[in-house]
Amino acid sequence: MAPPAQSQRSQSPSQPSGKSEVSDLKHQLRQLAGSRAPGVDDSKRELFKKVISYMTIGIDVSSLFGEMVMCSATSDIVLKKMCYLYVGNYAKVNPDLALLTINFLQRDCHDEDPMIRGLALRSLCSLRVANLVEYLVGPLGSGLKDSNSYVRTVAVVGVLKLYHISASTCVDADFPSMLKHLMLNDSDTQIVANCLSALQEIWSAEASTSEEAAREREALISKPFIYYLLNRIKEFSEWAQCLVLELVTKYVPSDSSEIFDIMNLLEDRLQHANGAVVLATVKVFLQLTLSMTDVHQQVYERIKAPLLTLVSSGSPEQSYAVLSHLHLLVMRAPYVFSSDYKHFYCQYNEPSYVKRLKLEMLTAVANESNTYEIVTELCEYAANVDIPIARESIRAVGKIALQQYDVNAIVDRLLQFLEMEKDYVTAEALVLVKDLLRKYPQWSHDCIAVVGNISSKNVQEPKAKAALIWMLGEYSQDMQDAPYILESLVENWDEEHSAEVRLHLLTAVMKCFFKRPPETQSALGAALAAGIGDFHQDVHDRALFYYRILRYNVSVAERVVNPPKQAVSVFADTQSSEIKDRIFDEFNSLSVLYQKPSYMFTDKEHRGPLEFADELGNLSIGEAAHNVISSQRVEENDKDLLLTTAEKEETRGSSNNGSVYAVPYDSSTSVFASQTQIESAISNPTTAGHSQHASFGIDDLLGLGMPAVPDVASPPQLKLNTKAALDPNAFQQKWRQLPVALSQELSLSPQAVAALTVPQALLRHMQSHSIHCIASGGQSPNFKFFFFAQKYEEPSNYLVECIINTTSAKAQVKIKADNQSTSQAFSTLFELALSKFGTP
Predict the structure, then answer these.
(1) Which position among 124, 249, 378, 789 has the lowest Cβ density within 10 Å, counted as fewest Cβ atoms?
(2) Strands of 810-817's sheet in order across
(3) pTM of this prediction?
(4) What distance in Å separates the CA atoms of residue 421 and residue 271, rounded to the nearest whole number?
(5) Nearest-angstrom CA–CA distance, 379 and 387
(6) Please, are residues 438 and 421 in contact by the beta-carbon 8 Å criterion?
């Protein structure tokens, strides 16, 4: 039988049928390579387009490299561009083939057409092949002196590319000096901006190894140069203006008159149509006046109008970026924007991310004079079809109420929310009413009257149900049906999946029992039984604690569970003032949009290396580069950042997170089966906490989930090697491989904090305790050190990461060890050594 005929498909230029198609292209290109016939350039264009289309969809056409280079011998700039694109793509993966392009690229660098010269130079620098850097020096030198500004612009960027390929070649060819000359003398502002950008990057990288580069970098923020740029700022492009303004923020004026001169010079930049230029100018104004309180407040008034204009006139993306910066300013000076609250009203056609930010702004600017109007507007949003925005609007109303502005009217609005027949509105309102009652107990009568009409069956969200249960327990004496509602909830214990709700239910039943014992006794017994048998450890521990303390003394239990309470004056802020100040310092950056400092979201490549010391005496923070070995650098792990003390600790090791109960619970047995053991533990509390054989230790009683620790003989003291040595590469490898054995927070004495003004003092102090520093970094108030130590006469290493925050006087310590069984002993030694730092 004959094979089935293959389906015929029309050939597409972007889908070759096989190798024959590429072979045909190769044959056609070779025929056209030396042809001078009329219209040959048009034929070449069609073939080049096919090659580029194949390359774009991932088909390997590298076999055409030679033919493409031969066909590039033409004056047609379109063919040149396509050929350069092809060459640049395959030069990275085929360095050997890239050598074939050098001759024709160097030849094109001397073409009469400046466009071809620039394109050829750009392509030559884009090859990025290390063994071809010697061919770049000549064309780059000629390009920097070219009469055409486009060629000079390309050459400046090419110098920076050369630096990243081979820094030594770039510096040896004296290109930085040539860029400096161009920057100060070229008439084209785009070239000046490119030179400034390239030199900032080059000199910043070279400053760690060259004193001259460090001096040149400092010269960029000198008064003559800053004024030179500011006087020409109107000539720069928008991108270049942002670059210049960012440099100006680093300049420190000598006196107030100089500050006013700079601000007057940049006054018209606030009216610029480009939002980036406006924000960069705002940053300059804010940074210059930080030390001048009165002027700083006037700056807020001055920058308000331009920023509000940008919010209303730009795209949603621009509005969000500007609003994020406005939000930061509002948090620092809310009264300045209090009269402009209508600018933050939500429009129906705005994206949800813009609306959400505007709601935060409305909450921040609310005061006595505008609360009514703002709350009225927010209440309209509660009926929004966008449910997340409706939720946010209700939360915003509650936040305003907690700021003590016109509480009477706001409480009435929230109670109206409770009567709406929308589950999510009721849920959010319940949570807010709970917080309001914690701050304003005098409103309990009005609130409870409405809350009592809400059926717990209609509340499904865990936070809302927990809030309702809290109110049932806290105000059970005022709610007639509270014991019976709680009893029905206890009966449905197994159907409640949220541990938060079960915890609140336990506490609420206890409170209700103390206020209305006869009606709650049966519900309390059922709740304790269900709680002790609960699979969630927190619920189990709390129920067990309540049971024991009730058997011990009911009066004591009431003082513990339901003591007299004071109204909450201030609710905790979710973000520390230190973090907010750090974000303000990074104004006009992604930090403002993410609402977190840059170190929390940048990757390790942009955090800078940790420098290893040649010896302890040379190890220093912020000193000149000759004090460190530049070739010995440790690459930080993603989690090994220089963090503030507020940052979460790394997951603790297995030696710290164990959870063991002294008495296992059998779910098939009644909770009261262990009554004898409980009575024994409670009747003799002194021995219960210390006896090695106690069934219930004091740790378990407090809900820590750990058994009592028996008295054992103290282990022998750990002795360290005074002449320990560890190669930096070995340290880095071990740090990546070893798990964290211990993680703890230590407090520093005021003397130790004062001594840290000279960080080397800590390094010498720790060395005197046989704990050596191998790397350090940071600046006040955050310092980071890597220490190591070795056990005496044994090849056992201890690695330590110590992050110190001088503001909070805390040290976050992580310890890794070859032998984890001795890590606790080493931790004791390290803590003892650190505690002695700063003492005479």
Answers:
(1) 249
(2) 628-634, 610-613, 772-779, 782-790, 797-805, 810-817, 742-747
(3) 0.64
(4) 49
(5) 13
(6) no
